[in-house]
């Protein structure tokens, strides 16, 4: 394992390869990290001499990591935890798919488990946790979405014998796959695997049907609006991976959260996999995947509530791949697509039709049998206003990309952290709020933090 010691790279014992546009170029592999948030490039190196700390071992691949002040939560897969109807006892089904940390103290939970029918002594099956989010108005309250058909709410400030006490739960008719609080509000949106969007606040919920349950589609992604689209969210659906070749279609609706109803259905037939709304709330970006390897980026004018796209771009990707996430820079200029085949495409929003401005590539997968590619990309700002991109890929690296540099610039793609396993997820924190600068989870279930 590489570790964070700068001397390892200088001495050449561990050389990191940077991949740009399919060509390999040697880099020094300088470890850099954030000091303040927004980030300051000049202060990245302060973590170069600080070791990473192993903070948790989950039973499976890490799905999500969130931080809120002194609290950090980690959600993961657990073997046999994705089928609530399974009746056999699986010896590899282990607890720990949801843990929280209060500084260095690890808090476990009893939730997201079911009692296996027909067993004595109340044998439990532990379920996978798909997503987690902290309440922005009560930052000690954690919401978690599990395959036990429940969204559970926990209080991180009330530890009982090392356990995280459950406040209450929402029982659903499906497995919740995605959570997202309205910005600066306690209204929680929940995306279900039955095509239903749930809006929950104070133990109450509304059901908003994005697509009929009979279509067997799931809410693959949604995004809250701000500015001109505040109080609304855009949800998109697709079929599961097993059925996608049979039915590559989807439904995409703009929902008014105040009334709990759809106000516009977008004129897109293909299945949606990722969606975001820009920082002014004026434009939405939806990535869809259709038949015959058709990959499309759709742009809609949110202020007009128009069902027709104002622009659509056919993405030149031949692989059987898809976008894991879309993220827009704080100044709304750059759009980054994180792909499953382990690359990031960065577009200039004013010149989308010209194709990617940058193509950043992570190296080959380290350990995963089925690599997830670049699982996340996040923009960070310098005090000067210049933006950089941070990404986590299947090569076990968290990398920093400077969009002001050329693709083949060997100074680009600096390593913030390198691990011996594919990246499952990562979180960037604000040290002025007692958060860790970087927390990284792997597909093998290990989570590391740098303080």
UniProtKB/TrEMBL annotation:
<keyword id="KW-0853">WD repeat</keyword>
<dbReference type="InterPro" id="IPR036322">
    <property type="entry name" value="WD40_repeat_dom_sf"/>
</dbReference>
<dbReference type="InterPro" id="IPR050630">
    <property type="entry name" value="WD_repeat_EMAP"/>
</dbReference>
<dbReference type="InterPro" id="IPR015943">
    <property type="entry name" value="WD40/YVTN_repeat-like_dom_sf"/>
</dbReference>
<protein>
    <recommendedName>
        <fullName>WD40 repeat-like protein</fullName>
    </recommendedName>
</protein>
<keyword id="KW-0677">Repeat</keyword>
<dbReference type="InterPro" id="IPR001680">
    <property type="entry name" value="WD40_rpt"/>
</dbReference>
